[in-house]
Amino acid sequence: MAIAKNKNGQIDVQFHWIFIILIGAIILSFFVGLSVWYKNTQEQKNTANIVVALDSVLDTAKESPKTARTTTIPDITLSFTCSSDECNDYGCASAFSGGGISHGTETEILFSLKELSGNDLITWALEWKLPYTISNFLYVTTDNVRYIFVYDEEHKELAYAVTSLLAENDYLTKETIKIEEPSDFAIIDKNDNFVRIVAFLDSDSLSETTVETALGENSANNKKWDIIYVDGSEESGTIYFSEESVSVSYAGLPLLLGAIFSADRDFYMCNVKKAALQGKVVSAVYLERTKALYDAVSAVPEKSYCSYYYGQDVQEAITTIMENVDILLSNSIAFSSAVQELMDNNNYAVIKNCPRVY
Amino acid sequence: MKKRGQVEIIGLMIIVIILSLALLFVIKVVFTKKNPDVSQNYQTNTLVEAFVNTLFQTSSGCTTDTTIQDLLVDCAKNPFSSGTIMCSDGRSSCQYANETIAYILQQTIDKWGFQNTGYEFVAVAPPNQQIVYYGSGNLSASLAGETTPFTLRLYPSQQYLHVYLCIGGCGLT
Amino acid sequence: MQTKIRTKKAQKAQLKTGETIIVLIIFFILLAGGMIFYAKIQKYTTSQKKQETAAVDAISIEQRIRHMTEIPCSIDGTIIFDCYDLEKIKGLQKTIPDYMLYYNSVIFKNSKVTITSVYPVAEEILLFDAETREISTGTQPYRTPVTLYDPLTNMYSFGYITIEVFTS
């Protein structure tokens, strides 16, 4: 009897310890799981805060045209998307995101690469005028992206115009190279995240092999460089994205710079569509204002001479801009004459002490 | 056993008491905590700045091309003679500025609920001469508000006109 | 004797079990009470947060209006901040119905925006009215003084923008 009890006790002790270890493991795994969950939640919260803060940074940058700014960003990769196929009455499907948290930018005109990472986020804005201000274009990049501007004698005027404008932005990593022949072009690897070569040369004149040898081969997941070719003047021209073998047009330096900072043709065209929508809205307001000014000054004999500057020609010019802004890239000549009409009438109105057209 | 039972019940009671105290503590912290009202501070600060900047740019109506800033500067340069600008209705620049600013304040800040909080609009010209004053509300009970002045230089001299708009009183004597 | 001992032991075990059950019941009652209390506190703080959010929304709308390119004063295309052209405002008033989706979703959202001129000209313009929901209780209308320029008389008026945010 006593021996049986002893044996029972021995077995009982082992089960007791197994039971303790099991329960202990369950409790421990519960708390470990809890702390992992908390850590992930906090990381997501921090990323959300970063995205919200970045939105504020981008808003501020957009409202300060021709002022380059840098913002130190934490070690996350920012993604920018903009789809030109998904546009509606007021904007296009676009957003920027970091760490899984995204923020919509449906109506914001923002030119950038699809992914940005680096220590410093560089923002820069330019006003887009037709000739009244339509919107501010925001250009976003980082210190890890290098821009190389290559030009020859034939294309030097446009190259000067672009590089002089970009000289106002000290934060950009950029180089300007003048060459006699495309074969003279050489490049050194400086371990950048990405290199954009902006060639004010004839299309496809640069040797991609030279670039590949220096910077490495592009792969589907890791695009290290690309080349865009620019041809035209400050007012209008074309940009050829060599990787996609497609051309797009630009009208004015702000749009040209938009193409230089854009990831690809689709990204550029998406923002052009957003700009066009803004153009329609702003032009509609100016048209109503011009009509009201015309009616008001016509009713006052002492001021009736001012009505000439808000008359049919001016209203038609604004209407031309409003109705054609979404095809402005293909109809820049009609645009130029409408813009000139407004500028001329505005100047005369100022001289004659009449209210400005814009 | 009875004693053990009683001891255990006392133990339970202690737990209940501790939990109740903790709950009371939480109630006190949550309901009596004063959250700093960030949006209210922002609103007040931007209101003051926007008000004064807008006021300066407003066409006075005294003459066709004078703003309220022009009247204030003229009055500040000549505080003892009520200013040199004579308005189209015969009033001096000092008088016109005072009455116009009072009107604008009555139509705006008074109606926006700051009458109870109390506020003061004061323009002080050198040498420490109050050329414009408008106060509203119970200032003695309020804390002194934002007292950083807006300054207008009295060209060609190096002196300045100081303009204050203080929600809660400027505390100027 | 042994039966008596066994009975006593069983009674003791029953007592212990009963005790444990009562402790557990009291524990769960306290837990439930705590959770109900926490929920009530959360409800209170959520309603406070709602009011705060409405105030912040009004500020956001004011910022968006400030950065619109349609209505600010301009000199040859260069925008002057914190100044609004009255004729552009009236033009925008007429344009908004044609672009309602844009202005409703992007700029003004659930709000009522009024622009009032105080001096020297008194005038009130209703720029936008979401019209549908009740005005948020406990939130004051957000007002900000602005300069209003009349191009016809070349005069700058003292005015203000009033933004009232609707919450459902």
Report on the structure:
The complex is a heterotrimer of chains A (358), B (173) and C (168). Chain A is built from seven helices and 14 strands. Chain A has a domain at 275-351. In chain A, 44% of the residues lie in helices and 25% in strands. The model of chain A has no long low-confidence stretch (mean pLDDT 88). Chain A starts with a helix and ends in a 7-residue tail after the last helix. Chain A is an alpha/beta fold. In chain A, the strands form three sheets. A six-stranded mixed sheet of chain A has the order 10-9-11-12-13-14, with helices on one face. In chain A, strands 1-7-8-5 form a four-stranded mixed sheet. Chain B is an alpha+beta fold. Chain B folds into two domains: 1-33; 37-167, no CATH class. Chain B contains five helices and four strands. Chain B has helices spanning 2-32, 38-57, 68-77, 93-107, 110-117, and strands at 119-125, 129-136, 150-153, 160-167. In chain B, helix 3 (68-77) crosses helix 4. The longest helix of chain B has 31 residues, at 2-32. The mean pLDDT of chain B is 85. Chain C has a domain at 56-165. Helices cover 49% and strands 29% of the residues of chain C. Chain C has helices at residues 2-66, 86-95, 100-107, and strands spanning 72-75, 78-85, 111-119, 123-129, 142-150, 155-165. In chain C, strands 1-2-5-6-3-4 form a six-stranded mixed sheet. Chain C is rod-shaped and about 115 Å long. Chain C starts with a helix and ends with a strand. Chains in contact: A-C, B-C. At the A-C interface, strand 8 and helix 5 of A face strand 2, helix 2 and helix 3 of C.
Biggest pleated-sheet summary of chain B: 4 strands, antiparallel
What is the number of helices of chain C? 3
Which structural class fits the helix and strand makeup of chain B?
alpha+beta
Determine the strand fraction of chain C and express it as a percent band: 25-35%
Characterize the biggest β-sheet of chain C: 6 strands, mixed
**Which pair of chains forms the biggest interface, and how many residues does each contribute?**
B-C, 34 and 33 residues
Short summary of the structure?
By secondary structure, chain A is α/β, with parallel strands linked by helices.
Could you outline the blueprint of secondary structure elements for this entry?
The complex is a heterotrimer of chains A (358), B (173) and C (168).
Chain A: H1 2-62, E1 69-72, E2 78-87, E3 92-98, E4 101-104, E5 110-111, E6 115-116, E7 120-129, E8 133-142, E9 145-151, H2 156-166, E10 173-178, E11 194-200, H3 208-215, E12 225-232, E13 236-241, E14 246-251, H4 253-261, H5 265-298, H6 312-324, H7 332-351
Parallel strand pairs in A: 5-8, 9-10, 9-11, 11-12
Antiparallel strand pairs in A: 1-7, 2-3, 2-6, 3-4, 7-8, 12-13, 13-14
Helix pairs in contact in A: 5-6, 6-7
Chain B: H1 2-32, H2 38-57, H3 68-77, H4 93-107, H5 110-117, E1 119-125, E2 129-136, E3 150-153, E4 160-167
Helix pairs in contact in B: 3-4
Chain C: H1 2-66, E1 72-75, E2 78-85, H2 86-95, H3 100-107, E3 111-119, E4 123-129, E5 142-150, E6 155-165
Parallel strand pairs in C: 2-5
Antiparallel strand pairs in C: 1-2, 3-4, 3-6, 5-6
